[in-house]
Design a protein that fits this description.
It is built from 11 helices and 9 strands. With 290 residues, the protein is α/β, with parallel strands linked by helices. The chain has 2 domains: 153 residues, 3-Layer(aba) Sandwich (Rossmann fold), CATH 3.40.50.300; 126 residues, no CATH class. The strands form 2 sheets. It has a 5-stranded parallel beta sheet. A 4-stranded parallel beta sheet has the order 7-8-6-9, with helices on one face.
Length: 290
């Protein structure tokens, strides 16, 4: 029996996660009051239940009842039940944006500022996050990427370090990403922008990749960056960091930064880290011309 409690910040993706887990064969129940967890577990763990995978969505929509979550988890463990906690998180900026896009009210501040509700919720969820077996920060994850992360945990059974790495290319002329933890400037590498036949292509094109990576300085930079990132990652994991955003910037975010971001991302994939890639400004020149 796999008994999973899904909780976390409102707007971080709990509902989507439950739908994905249901597609993976889990029996899913959303918004179950914590006081009913023990009774529900007894039913699920009984030999004739016919259920082998359960996911319970529990969050602050339960109001005052949510405060009993940690106690109920401890009660289950004391009775010998094995369970795990999946915690969905996202940064404040992302959560506010999602609430505004969906025009939903935060459960804790129906008439107040969303930010105040987020702050209150984080306080209420401190112990639940500490208790979590898996923490997924969805700030920079697409829906399909969230599904991939869940599959790693619940289907493939891979070791999960609770750290998702986002490699982000950008253009300095459009501003440094506010959510970047590490920023690297690759404007020292020769720029294909000034070669007529390469100007309109991007770092996703083989011609640009070949041009950028022909330079020894680009390969040395990538090797040193790779070495440093692999030194930092275990230390970030030990610290408890859940999201690492690595920004790689060039002038316009179209050629050099895209190429180096792709190269770093491919190296991370070979080492089986949970990672994704996003090219923030790759289409900016095209948009400005319209």
């Amino acid at each position: 029996m796999r008994f999973t409690i899904v909780t976390g910040m409102s707007g971080a993706g709990k509902s989507n996660s439950l739908k994905m887990l249901e597609d993976m064969g889990f029996f899913c129940v959303d918004n179950l009051p914590p006081v009913l967890i023990n009774k529900f577990a007894q039913i699920c763990f009984s030999p004739d239940s016919g259920i082998d995978k359960v996911a319970l969505g529990i969050d602050i929509r339960g109001g005052n009842l949510f405060a009993e979550l940690i106690n109920e988890i401890k009660n289950l463990e004391n009775k010998g039940y094995e369970l795990e906690v999946l915690f969905l998180d996202a940064n404040d900026e992302t959560l506010i944006k999602r609430f505004k896009e969906t025009r939903r009210k935060h459960p804790l501040v129906a008439e107040g500022r969303i930010q105040h509700g987020i702050e209150q919720e984080r306080e209420l969820l401190i112990e639940a996050k500490k208790r979590a077996n898996y923490i997924i920060d969805t700030s920079n994850l697409l829906t399909r990427e969230l599904k991939t992360e869940l599959a790693k945990i619940f289907i493939e059974g891979k070791k999960y370090e609770n750290l998702i790495i986002t490699v982000l290319s950008f253009g300095f002329k459009y501003g440094i990403p506010s959510d970047a933890d590490l920023v690297f400037d690759v404007r020292f590498i020769p720029n294909p922008f000034y070669i007529l036949e390469l100007k309109e292509k991007t770092g996703n094109d083989k011609e640009i990749r070949d041009y950028v990576m022909q330079w020894e300085v680009a390969n040395k930079f990538l090797d040193k960056l790779d070495d440093m990132i692999n030194f930092l990652i275990p230390n970030y994991i030990q610290e408890g960091k859940n999201q690492l955003v690595i920004g790689i910037g060039c002038t316009g975010g179209k050629h050099r930064s895209v190429t180096l971001a792709n190269e770093l991302y491919n190296r991370l994939l070979k080492q089986d880290y949970s990672s994704n890639i996003y090219h923030r400004d790759i289409d900016q020149d095209t948009k400005r011309k319209k």
